[in-house]
Task: structure prediction
Amino acid sequence: MTLVFVLPVAILCLRSVTEPTFGLENFTRLLGHSGYVDNIVRTILISAASTFVALIFGYPIAYQMVHGGVWLRTFLTVAIMAPYLTSVLLRSFSWLVILGREGPVNKLIEQFGLEPIGMVFTPIAVVVSLSHYLLPLMILPLAATMRSVDDSRVRAATSLGAGPAQAFVRVYLPLTKPGIQAGSVLCFVYGIGAFVIPALLGGSKGSMLGSLIHSAIKQSGDYGLASAAALVLGALVLVIVLVFQRLTGMSTTELAGRSGATVTRSPHAKRGGGRVLRLAGRAAGGLDRLGVTRSRRLPKVLAAALGALVLAPQFIVIPISFASTQALIFPPVGYSTQWYAEFFTASWLDPLAVSVRIALLVTIIAGVLGTLAAMGVVRGAVRGWGASTSTLMMLPLLFPTVVAAAGFSMEFERIGLVDTELGIVLAHVTLALPFVFSVVSAGLRSLNPVYERAASSLGASRTVQLRRIVLPLIAPSILTAGLFAFLTSFDESTVAIFLSGVHVKTLPKRIFEALSLETNPTVAVIAVFVMACAALIWLGYALFRRLTQISRSNS
Result:
């Protein structure tokens, strides 16, 4: 991790003040040019707006995922996690169709006698797509915090005369503030480093710092400007994380590795928002007096409707995959299977084979290294290394991927690893290692060490303990970590776009070219295949759990 991830990023920071000459010339150009400053401000505003939209949509969904009925909880879980299993490139394609001039949104606007709105290649499209992408990162911390809230406090407020809305605003909402903080900082950090969504949906009006870094490297070869922009982006993320730590007392490792964990308030944190809560409480009291909040069914219907909206982009691509024309029109003017035939050609199957081959290598390498690192931290004999090693292993999850991709691109080019499978494998291993390390570490911590001590007392060496006891018991964690590593590499797009070239092209790189350079419904075919594979995996897992439960009950 230090050699492949940290070192290129450190050299990137160094090049910001040494390329082409030593000094602050690159930062002067970046901060002294109105266009670049607008880009930085736009990056912050788009990320903040996307975080706010994710919070507004995510809070009622998270609430019903915790307090709703079984069927509603199941539906909302599927609605939130299903898009997360699909590549951001494929979700961007869905929003290209939905927000296009001939898309369903503009068709609905025309029904009211209004003129269509040009939303694609504007900040509106970026905010909508980015908030949809960030939604799981908001909901998971919210749901985890809501599960720890004592419902008796809300019942006590109701028994003292507070209406449903007033009890929610004055009692329940403040208790979930740690989850709101954790979800917001995660969404803002990931949003501010976004590259693919602004590049495909933003155009010149909605471009962000990631697009500036990419164009400076790939189009103009201005490594100094790219390094300065990457350093500014990294500094923004660092400031956000440090402020969050000050407010909540949560460590970087906890934020990166346990985003669903309950966040505790730091003793140094300042209480704020009292005036806002008082105003919101008065408004809630007015709603209670009007009787609007008395219906228990309304929040459930609202959450179900929001879940359906989140899930809708997944299915909009199915009719597009059968379109008879190349134009992205919904519904299609005619139907054909030509795009399915197009997918089974060398132009698509070759990148697919490259992605599968790279993902398998990444799974093996990251699986071995991540498992060994987890054992070293959890079962290691050397004290004092655990916290620093855990922070180092989790660093890629909190650092903007586009900054790391820029570091990879610049330094790998010097040693001939750009446009090679080895270069992409090395970069992807660093991105997959945090998932392997965290999952296997959790499995090891849940493993009772008494088994190892018993084996040791019977004369078993550390190697025998590892082979006969530890590895078999944590095998499910290793398999789960391997699946995460494979999906991380297979779906990763930012690093692949920076490092791919003429000779080596992954499937995400091919999709990015199809979306940015041409209008190709073949991407919809890929989305259909991905959804079908995800559904089969989901059904297989559910069937496996069911058979396991039956087997245990019979035994």
